[in-house]
Amino acid sequence: MNRSLLFRRLFTSLAVTLFIALFSFLFAGCNGGQHPVGDAADGDNAEGELEEGLQGGAHGEGFDPYGYPRNARRETPEDTDAVDADNNGDDPSQDQREPEPTPQAAHAAPSAPRVYFANLNGNAVDVLDTGTYSFIAHVGVGQKPRGVALTPDRRLLFVSNSASASMTVVDAASLQVTATIALPAGSSPYGIAFTPDGASAYVANFITAGSVFVIDVATKTIKANIPASGSTIHVAVSPDGTRAFATNIAGNSLMVIDTLTNTVIATVPLTNADAVATSTNGRWIYVTTDVLADTGKLTILDGVTYAVVQTVPVGNLPVALAASRDGRFLFVANAGSTFVSQFSTRTNTLIRTVPSAQGIQALTYVQR
Q1: What is the DSSP code string of 249-263?
Q2: pLDDT for the residue 367
Q3: Residue percentage of the chain with pLDDT more than 90
Q4: How remote is the C-alpha of 31 from its chain's centroid?
Q5: Long-range interactions of 183-188: CB distance < 8 A, separation 24+
Q6: What is the spatial distance between Cα 41 and Cα 34, in angstroms, rounded to a whole number?
Q7: 83: pLDDT strictly greater than 50
Q8: Which CATH number do you get for residue 241?
Q9: Does residue 97 contact residue 85 with C-beta atoms inside 8 Å?
Q10: Contact 139, 29 (CB under 8 A)
Q11: Is residue 168 part of a domain?
Q12: Residue 147 lies in domain
């Protein structure tokens, strides 16, 4: 395994702080006019800001890639193709929309979205309030946390502790640790993804042989440990919850897992595969590849046949992906370059590159 990749991933705090301020300003003016590949509407209102962090979630039908209910998006009169919410053929602007579900008091939603940072050297998760852009909590977890992901209902935060072979579970409302899940000795958990129903968490095991743990969210126990052909690093789950996709950066492949049987049903050769995400309708799978080359790539696969349909050059060390809430845009963090790449998921083409600090490791799109 090329250790230079691991060393480069240690750049977090300074790059994150600078990029939040920079990209919040730049992205405010972004108008693309594309509609999502999945189920959202056309329009020029991006309705959000791109924030850095390791906030995860399921790619589900009822929830967006970061755990928010999809019907929470409210179209504005400026949207050119608004959705007819009640399907009665009338003016969509007159529809009475379902309000966003009100969380129970014990799990009251914060007044502004939060971003959760895996503090690798501090053995903690740092919590940023995006309303004030101030850190509000420093939650101690295990050693060398790498992945952070919210359950689809946003109640629990799962943290992968790469140097202590464990997972930490944090209550997202109180920010208190509620459980620690012990993994087999020698494990090095990394990326995390949930099934849309929140029943299972798929966790990449970043060891030489590689594997994917399947964790029962309710019981906090391991349901399966799926062998891999090399160091697994990131995981995504299909919108319908039937497939999980795990990247093997050293095994040069993408594993396709049947989530009903928790068995590998396909292996797609991809050089130094790293970050992975799916489109909101499951039509496309996006994987960053060639991450150890001078110029990395975004590789686009058919979501049904798993055939490679397109490769697009990006920057050096493309180690993270994030989608906008409506699925219209996909962003690539190029840790070895000084820009973030923005793509249209409608046309699968590069829209622009956004200047950034070098060393960007992760991205999260925060809804406003």
Answers
A1: TTTTEEEEEETTTTE
A2: 64
A3: 57
A4: 22
A5: 183/213, 183/222, 184/225, 187/213, 188/162, 188/163
A6: 9
A7: no
A8: 2.130.10.10
A9: yes
A10: no
A11: yes
A12: 52-70+104-321
